[in-house]
Design brief:
Length: about 150
């Protein structure tokens, strides 16, 4: 009777050991490559900006996001979410050849008095009533920064 109890105890502890080994193995799964690749992709999205914005351009960027973005798009490509409504579409501000042919004065005119004042689409609204001269200059600086 005593040997039987000892044997049972031995068998049970053997089984227990086997089981705990097994469960330990299944817990060893954190894949190292996963965490490192997450770090890699995070550092890729933090790529250096194409060019640092000046103070004026940053002020303009703030206003642009608020008032112009909807039509002209985040990157100034004339593809804002409202652009499908526009015909003609706004010019691509990142097109350096087109933009460098415009004087600062022309850009400021367009923003202040709107499209109809420069023989362009009247769907470009005039902003002179809402934004002062300083703000319009900031906007013009930011509009130019797309083609830098
Ligand atoms: C309702 C849509 C809309 C909004 C909002 C808008 N624009 Fe425009 N914008 C246009 C359209 C359309 C044109 C193009 C007109 C054309 O080429 O006939 C244009 C043209 C321009 C031009 C002239 C570019 C050129 O070809 O000479 C400038 C500069 C400009 N927008 C700046 C701005 C700025 C800055 C803001 C924000 C304060 C703004 N726009 C807001 C639609 C918009």
């Amino acid at each position: 009777m005593k040997t039987f109890t000892v044997l049972t105890a031995l068998v049970l502890s053997f089984l227990f050991l086997q089981c705990s080994k097994y469960t330990n193995n299944t817990h060893k799964q954190p894949a190292k490559s996963d965490s490192t690749s997450a770090v890699d992709s995070a550092s890729q999205t933090l790529a250096a900006p194409v060019h640092e914005l000046t103070y004026e351009e940053r002020e303009g960027q703030f206003l642009y996001t608020k008032y112009c973005d909807v039509c002209h798009g985040d990157a100034g490509k004339g593809d804002g979410f409202n652009a499908y409504n526009l015909n003609p579409k706004p010019q691509d501000f990142s097109d350096a050849r087109y933009m460098n042919a415009l004087s600062d004065q022309q850009i400021i005119q367009a923003i202040t008095y709107g499209g109809s004042a420069i023989n362009k689409s009247p769907l470009m609204p005039p902003w002179g009533g809402r934004l002062d001269k300083q703000r319009i200059e900031y906007l013009a600086a930011y509009v130019r920064s797309f083609a830098k």
